[in-house]
Amino acid sequence: MNAQDTAVVHVKWLVDGLAQDVPGVRQVVLVSSDGLLLASAGEGGAGSGGERLGAIVSGLVSLAQGAARVMGMGEVRQEIITMAEGHVVAMSISDGSCLGVHASATGDLAVIAYQMTAFVRRAGHVLTPALRAELHRSHEPGNAAGR
Questions:
Q1: Secondary structure element (H or E) that encloses residue 114, with its range
Q2: Distance (Å, rounded) from C-alpha 75 to C-alpha 60?
Q3: Phi and psi dihedrals of 74, rounded to 5?
Q4: Strand ranges (E), 47-144
Q5: Helix crossing, 109-123 with 3-21: angle to 10°?
Q6: What's the whole-model pTM score?
């Protein structure tokens, strides 16, 4: 296994860990800056909502960044949508990709945000263009490698 393969496995392991280990988290997605789903874990996976949550998170991050530019409020750190039965939390990663979480209403937003920040710190520096391309290839339908 080369360094690129190791990095892909590491990022997917971090996504899986966030989905499985943080109470209240239903689904986690990692999305490229152009809206492509790179990794997902949790309820449904990519086939049942991962692509949809990825698109929502990508749009949410883009909208928040546009609003911040228009209002001159500086860099966007996090977006949270709270609904009657759950939350969607999105966080930008320095390379333009973003991390999104769909959580139940009982999920502790402080814990979820902390764990997302920890994820960004651990994985953000390895999300090179080559790694993002490999993650996307491994997540395409019909490609079971790396899943």
A1: helix 109-123
A2: 14
A3: 85, -170
A4: 79-83, 86-92, 98-104
A5: 180
A6: 0.83
Nearest 5°: CA angle at 8, between 25 and 78?
40
Q: One digit per residue, pLDDT tens: the chain, 147 residues?
A: 666 667 778 788 889 999 999 999 999 999 988 888 888 999 865 455 788 999 999 999 999 999 999 999 998 889 999 999 999 999 988 777 899 999 999 999 999 999 999 988 887 767 766 777 777 777 665 555 444
**∠ CA 62-79-129, rounded to 5°:** 50
Q: Hey, what amino acid is at 127?
A: L
Calpha distance 2→35 (Å, rounded): 27
User: What token pair was written down for 49?
Assistant: 């909502």
Return the structure tokens found at 81.
């949508």
Spell out the SS3 assignment of 45-63.
CHHHCHHHHHHHHHHHHHH
The token duo for 42 is 């949790």
Residue 81 corresponds to which amino acid? I
Q: Which residues touch 144 (CB under 8 Å, ≥6 apart)?
A: none
